């Protein structure tokens, strides 16, 4: 299907078409398409832009990744389809950052497709192809991880993922950075550092912040982050945008000539006093 660049939702429709193609190829599962639609709705509410609170979270996320002993970014099908190039840029910007495939709907074919998408985008080393460790108390294939990757990490960046794995990683003593457009999701609510932004905007911004650090220098520590304030700011932005939209006068349909004549006739009548 050809999408005209003149269409007012050209960018959004292009992404949807790309995800649909990725779904037909097996990289993205149908459940992933549903998840994308839900996230896109929240992006509407946020104004389809990076909020000031998200920019602050992205700056701190870059510092956490640089200051970590061992940082890992986890990649699922949607992230691979949407943001493989952004993941590759982030891996270049953060020395020692590992990239690991982790899937809820895991098959050998999907693992290969995700790895191929990442390598084609420029990621040199992809972990998670042959899991060698298991996250305790996590009853899904997301528990299957690489012992030299997520299992060993102290900071995990998990874009577009679910809340149960966030909590399971935290139970192992790991700091979790999430990227999720829904500030009410279990992932956002549980993460140590929730980034409420669209995944491509977020990963690009985090990489850009990391690139500003000179040479091999690193932040001295993982500085504190007020996650409650970050989530409150995102919810406040959504509330303000919805209120502004509700107050905006809707455009009415053009009236027909007959309707205009009726309106003029009604306005010209003299109201009788009972």
Core attributes:
six-stranded parallel β-sheet, alpha/beta, 274 residues, Rossmann fold, 51% helix, globular, 8 strands, two-stranded antiparallel ribbon, single chain
What does this structure look like?
With 274 residues, the protein is of the alpha/beta class. It has a domain of 184 residues: Rossmann fold, CATH 3.40.50. Helix 3 packs across helix 8 and helix 4 runs parallel beside helix 8. It is globular, with a radius of gyration of 23 Å.
Helix content: 40-55%
Profile the largest sheet: 6 strands, parallel
Identify the CATH class of the domain at 52-235: Alpha Beta
What is the architecture of the domain at 52-235 at the second tier of CATH?
A: 3-Layer(aba) Sandwich
* SS summary, helix count: 10
CATH level-four homologous superfamily name of the domain at 52-235: Phosphopantoate/pantothenate synthetase
Based on the structure, what is the oligomeric state of the protein chains?
Answer: single chain
Low-confidence stretches: 270-274
Query: Could you tell me how far the N terminus lies from the C terminus, measured between alpha carbons in angstroms?
Result: 65 Å
- Class by helix and strand content? alpha/beta
Mean pLDDT, nearest integer? 90
Order of helices and strands: HHHEHEHEEEEHEHEHHH
Shape: globular
Strand content: 5-15%
Indicate the CATH topology of the domain at 52-235. Answer: Rossmann fold
Which sequence of strands runs across the widest sheet?
3-2-1-6-7-8
Computed Rg: 23 Å
Count the beta strands: 8
């Amino acid at each position: 299907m050809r999408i005209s660049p003149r269409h007012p939702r050209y960018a959004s429709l292009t992404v949807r078409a790309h995800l649909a193609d990725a779904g037909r190829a097996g990289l993205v599962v149908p459940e992933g398409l549903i998840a994308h639609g839900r996230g896109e709705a929240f992006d509407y509410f946020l104004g389809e832009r990076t909020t000031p609170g998200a920019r602050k979270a992205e700056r701190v996320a870059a510092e956490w990744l640089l200051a970590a002993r061992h940082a890992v970014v986890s990649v699922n099908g949607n992230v691979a389809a949407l943001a493989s190039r952004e993941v590759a840029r982030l891996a270049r910007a953060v020395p020692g950052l590992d990239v690991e495939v982790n899937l809820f709907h895991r098959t050998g074919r999907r693992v290969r497709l995700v790895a191929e998408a990442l390598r084609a985008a420029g990621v040199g080393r992809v972990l998670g192809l042959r899991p060698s460790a298991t996250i305790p108390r996590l009853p899904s294939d997301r528990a299957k991880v690489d012992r030299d990757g997520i299992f060993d990490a102290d900071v995990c960046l998990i874009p577009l993922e679910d809340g149960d794995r966030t909590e399971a990683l935290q139970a192992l003593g790991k700091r979790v950075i999430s990227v999720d457009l829904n500030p009410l999701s279990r992932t956002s609510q549980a993460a140590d550092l929730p980034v409420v932004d669209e995944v491509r905007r977020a990963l690009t911004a985090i990489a850009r912040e990391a690139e500003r650090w000179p040479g091999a220098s690193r932040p001295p520590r993982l500085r504190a982050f007020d996650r409650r304030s970050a989530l409150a700011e995102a919810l406040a932005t959504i509330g303000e945008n919805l209120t502004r939209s509700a107050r905006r006068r809707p455009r009415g349909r053009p009236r027909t000539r007959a309707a205009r004549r009726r309106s003029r006739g009604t306005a010209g009548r003299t109201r009788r006093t009972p």
